[in-house]
Specification:
This protein is 35% helix and 21% strand. It is of the alpha/beta class.
């Protein structure tokens, strides 16, 4: 099974080398690595070019934001299974992709996900939050559940059938696409019960109360544009679930 990993970057000179090394260190042999850059003006391009012989495809051009970059990467990908790792995230160890492929092949699933830890931006060995996903149960999105998108691997055929990221959403397009695939279209994902991704803390939707309110509005819009109706407490339980992630950070 050929696997495509897509990294989206923009002025990521301080973090992207860690990301690239974590992908290129994977022990899985049939790997296509794609980097889509949004026309960076710092040292990002120079760093990427140092590894260009090991990168299958690389483009740098203006885009309409991170999800536009993801869509470009999806159109370039030729792997049967696709994962997306942003330029400030890293894989936990060299066996991440091998383990995900084994899970997908053994379960014959169309998508899979795992656990994630948030880490300090300067010291990625320091865990600040632990996102233990748990096994998916039908209707879980109604209870505020979602898998961590940086651990989400999907067969290319699912994207081809059900579409790419919705650019009308600025911060919740990853939530919307998983809601669409899993809750709306019934793609039942398999779960790998271990941490596979370290994500640097500081996501835009969580930086302030104002941004959290904006993100909540986009979460609601994700349901509306799919012709779906959330539960009475769905959009309240989703951000509240993050409190438990801080409690589990020592695991």
């Amino acid at each position: 099974m050929k696997v495509s990993i897509i990294t989206i970057s923009y002025n990521s000179a301080t973090t992207i080398e860690d990301t690239i090394r974590s992908v290129l260190s994977q022990d899985y042999p049939d790997l296509e690595y794609i980097i889509v850059d949004g026309n960076s003006s710092d040292g990002t391009l120079g760093i990427v070019k140092r590894y260009q012989s090991s990168i299958a495809q690389f483009i740098s051009e203006p885009d309409k934001g991170i999800y536009d970059g993801m869509n470009k990467g999806l159109k370039m990908a030729s792997g049967e299974l696709i994962g997306i790792l942003n330029s400030d995230d890293i894989y936990e160890d060299p066996k991440v992709i091998s383990d995900m492929v084994k899970l997908v092949e053994s379960s014959k699933c169309m998508a899979a996900y795992a656990d994630l830890v948030y880490v300090d931006r300067q010291d990625t060995s320091k865990i600040t939050r632990y996102w233990k996903s748990g096994a998916y149960k039908k209707g879980a999105f109604l209870k505020g559940w979602m898998p961590p998108h940086p651990t989400f691997f999907v067969r290319k055929s699912v994207y081809d059938r059900y579409g790419y990221f919705n650019l009308l959403l600025k911060s919740a397009a990853d939530y919307e696409i998983m809601l669409r695939f899993i809750h709306k279209h019934g793609i039942e994902p398999a779960y790998l019960p271990r941490v596979i991704t370290r994500m640097r803390a500081g996501g835009q939707s969580n930086l302030s109360i104002k941004n959290r309110i904006k993100a909540n509005r986009e979460d609601r819009e994700a349901w509306r544009i799919n012709g779906l109706k959330p539960g009475l407490f769905t959009l309240i339980r989703k951000p509240l679930s993050k409190i438990l992630q801080f409690m589990k950070k020592g695991r």
